[in-house]
Amino acid sequence: MDINSFINGFMTSLEPINIMWVIIGGILGTVVGMLPGLGPATAVAVLIPVTFGMEPVSAIILMAAIYYGAMYGGSRSSILLNTPGDGSAIAATFDGYPMARKGQAGQALAISAVASFIGGIMAVIGFIFLAMPLADFALKFGPAEYFLLMLLTLSAIVSLSLGRMVKGFIAMLLGLLLSTVGIDTQTGVYRFTMGVPHLSDGIDFLIVIIGVYAIGEVLYNFLTIDHEKKEKKEVGKIWFTKEQWKRSKWPILRSGPLGFIIGVLPGAGGSIASMISYSTEKQISKKPEEFGEGAVEGLAAPESANNAASVGAMIPLLTMGIPGSGTTAVMLGALIMLGLRPGPLLFENQPEIAWTLINSMFLGNIALVIVNILLVGLLIKILDTPAKVLYPIIVLLAFIGTYTLSYNVIDFFLLLIFGVFGLFMKVFDFPIAPLVLALIVGADMEQNFRKALLSSNGSLDIFVSTPVSIGLVILTLISLFYPLVIKAFKKKKSNNLDQSSTP
Amino acid sequence: MKKLSVLLLVVLLLSACSVGNSGANKEFPTKNLELIAPASPGGGWDLTARSMQKAMRDNDLVDKNINVVNKPGGGGETGWKYLKSKDSHHLAINSSLVLTNELLGQSDLSYEDFTPIATLATEWQALAVPVDSEYESATELMEQLESDPKSVKIGVGPGLGNDDHLSIVQAAGEYGVDPAQLNFLVYEGGGDVVTALLGGHVDAVTTSLSEVKDQHLAGKLKILAVSSEERLEDLDEVPTWKEEGVDMVFPHWRGIMGPPDMTEEEIAYWDEKIKEMVKTEDWQKLVKNNNWEDFYKDSEESKKFMKEQHELYEKLVNDSGLVK
Predict the structure, then answer these.
(1) Pseudo-torsion of CA A195, A201, A202, A207, nearest 10°?
(2) Which end of chain A has a smaller Cβ tally under 10 Å, C or N?
């Protein structure tokens, strides 16, 4: 680490104009993250013309702040409305929404902001000391490792679907099926596009998220809107209890580094990080049966992980000039226009820019946790909003968000189709997350599997050829068979009890 | 009834007016101008359109407002279809995809459906290998491919049939290797291709020079050849394909085109404006920042250029074995 550049960067990040950009970016990111369908990539892209006249360093600070700000904001709508704003906020619905149903909305919002903060700060510290070695580690991930990482992510479906395993796997298969729509990269063949050129890029998973969650939720509530009880909903305190903190503390501290490392891998990102952290916590928890019913650590862990991942994603961008996610790809384009070329020469030629950004992430996370905690009191009012006002607004936002994805009305039809689909899934009690998760990772998983086999001339040995891949295989196996292990473990335990109770 | 007939009269008068206007083309442009980026905000096409917008606006080149519209999808198809239905106030960014989409049988739109306006800038294609690669030169790599075309894993992105892929198809063909036999791994984009090379997951890549230039200067990988006519200023140790015995100059160009049936006056208007635009400091700076090179051709030259390129790409697509 270069101390002089670090201090220079620290001073630059403290300039009033840059503090202003951090705060503006953070708030903007929180807002777009909250709104279904509007994500950080869209927000950064829309701001590109604004950055034209800016100093490159201010531009990168602003864009990064939007990115991690959206990680804070994303879980707000997951918790309050069961409609995630982005792929990385899906895991926050699992326990965040049940917490809100139990009258703990305020606590849920507060703990997720604090978890995001801790995850973010851990990742910034990790960035300072580990950026270079981690960038090298990320390069070890070839097609085989990526395939296995995505398989591990999908294996989380087992723990998500406990009690309704068959339904979970049906949902997953549907998601994988949908992910094959579009042009096949390895051969250039069009699959299931039905002559619609718009479909050649595949079905954007964000449309499916907005459809099955937001539209599906609205339709589902519409079925019961007139029977709704008039009682005022309990929103709970706006700060979490000591007991809740005690339960979340270690999950938050574990998930931060986990999310950070997954974030460094180009192409993995927040969705995968939050999902793996959730399923890990569920598997090692002493009370796994509480997950999905409003377990506070089930919300805190993924929130810590996805924010850490957004910081980690800056590493390949800054050290190699390689964008690891949709948002960082847009950022790269904008930075090049400004004459700043992230890459291996950045730390040599313009180290102060890199260090200014890193320091601004410290400030940004502090600003964001304050803003988001202050917002808790305001946000829980959403729960008091009459359904007849709230749901039309959600539908409107869903359409706006969908339109910004590709400026094409064909997506509206997809949105409605998936909305109705989501309704049926809710009515018939299918878990939704496996569908969306499979769609998010499906296409990449397939392409990486095929690339791996192409490069090994068809031999499956490539999936166990490196320490990383062997590790991933073992983790996947544990994750897949953990329900059986738990069962066996419990049986043994009860057997033991039986034996000890019999004289 | 009376109201209705008055209304009808007004409508008729109005439409007569507008017909009169578009007849008198001296007035062109009569309304706001639109640059279509057939891609999402943030991508290369979008940034090209936005830079043109900025250069034209800041230098007061056009009297009317000039807007950028994003129409992503289908490798440009959606945006170009949209352009086809519009009038001469609309232009769209293009690249060789406007040729290959049709040649690969992925689109019914032909380059001849549009009016070439200008060719703006180009990038060059680079052949790169890991820093510890056994291949010291492009010729050595080609010799290896000649003895066993499948033995070298070549990374390209984001799809078969685009310039990354076709540039090595052409190079191999010129050298006497059957390009259809080559072993390609297709990655999502230029960044992923470079990661794969740095991690040693592929043996060689062909990609835009800007993707690998900094890595080469930092000593993380080796560029063996560039597809330009002559050696490049800041990379003068890297030979061209021509020097390596492969007779090929391969530009990865971007241009701009208008809808079908533009009048000569309208074409002349855009010719004049874009000729001025590419000279502006704003545009030159952008070209430099992006590692592009000036490749300006006016509408007449672009028309000829497109025809030549079409012939070349037709041959390359056939050689590649993508279309049977």
Answers:
(1) -110
(2) C
Asked if the domains at B32-122+252-320 and B124-235 fall in one CATH topology, the answer is yes
Q: In terms of CA atoms, which chain A residue is nearest residue B71? A: A407
Tell me the C-alpha distance between A342 and B278, whole Å.
26
Q: pTM here? A: 0.85
Compute the nearest-CA separation of B186 from chain A (Å).
Answer: 5
Q: Which residues of A touch B218 (CB under 8 A)?
A: 343-345, 348
Select the more confidently predicted residue: A344 or A73. Answer: A73
Average pLDDT over residues A275-287: 90
- DSSP β-ladder status, B90-95 and B33-37: parallel
Mean pLDDT taken over chain B = 89
The domain limits of chain B are 32-122+252-320, 124-235
A-chain CB neighbours of B40 within 8 Å are: 45, 406
| Beta carbons of A350 and A363 less than 8 angstroms apart | no
Q: Using CA of residue A443, residue A36, residue A364, residue A331, what is the dihedral sign?
A: positive
Cα A106 from Cα A112, distance rounded (Å): 10
Chain B residues touching residue A190 (CB < 8 angstroms): 106
Q: Cβ contact (<8 Å) for A198 and B78?
A: yes
Residue found by looking up tokens 């021509």 in the block: B242
Please indicate if any CB of chain A lies within 8 Å of the CB of B62. Answer: no
Compute how many other C-beta atoms are within 10 angstroms of the C-beta atom of residue B4. Answer: 8
ipTM above 0.90, yes or no: no
- Whole-Å CA distances, B40 to A122, A182, B69: 33, 17, 10
Summarised one tens digit per residue, pLDDT across range B107-136 is 889 999 999 999 999 999 999 999 999 999
For residue A103, the one-letter residue type is G
The whole-angstrom distance between B268's CA and the closest CA on chain A is: 29
Contact A408 B78 (CB under 8 A): yes
Is the CB of B84 inside 8 Å of chain A's CB atoms?
no
Radius of gyration over alpha carbons of chain B, in Å?
A: 23
**Residue B97 contacts A, CB cutoff 8 Å:** no
One of 3.40.190.10, 3.30.1490.20, 3.40.640.10, 3.40.50.2000 is the CATH number of B124-235, namely: 3.40.190.10
Closest CA to B75 of B45, B112, B53: B45
Residue B219: how many other CB atoms lie within 10 Å: 9
Both tokens of A279, joined, read 């399923």
**Domain at B32-122+252-320, CATH class:** alpha beta
Q: How far apart are CA A48 and CA A56, in angstroms?
A: 12
| Residues B15-61 pLDDT 10s | 544 444 444 445 788 999 999 999 887 778 888 898 899 899 889 99
